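User: Sorry, what's this?
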Amino acid sequence: MSTRKPSATAGPSPAGADLAAWNDLPRQQLAACTQACCAMFRGFEAVRRVQQKTAHQALAHHQAIAEKLNEPCHPMDLVAMQTEMIRFDMQGAAMYWQQVASAILEMERELLGSTASAAQSEADQMSSGLAGQVPMPGLNPFFFNVNGGVRPAA
């Protein structure tokens, strides 16, 4: 029987480091999902601002035309007002969809950026000492370097 006591200065075992990494995984997943939700909600707010601004401009323009139509006018003035309304509506619709597409592309860029940074930090973790770990089956490969840190041959 040995009387030696385990050394208190010994660092954590590799198995302990692996266990700590596995135990930290749910936090990392929740953080990544929450960041993605924030990016999505910022995009929704941007789309809503575009909608509100466009509706306000259309309201102001149509109110001005409605006030003009309350007064008697020449038939050619009616045609001119109709033409102006069509021009404004077509131009407004094109601008609206352009701004909505821009807001959605910005949201997608932000989502992809957070995904890329999460993948990069995971790759950095794998190269800093956790290389060679095999992911648990059934877990999302987004959070793992499934090729074990080995780059594919070119």
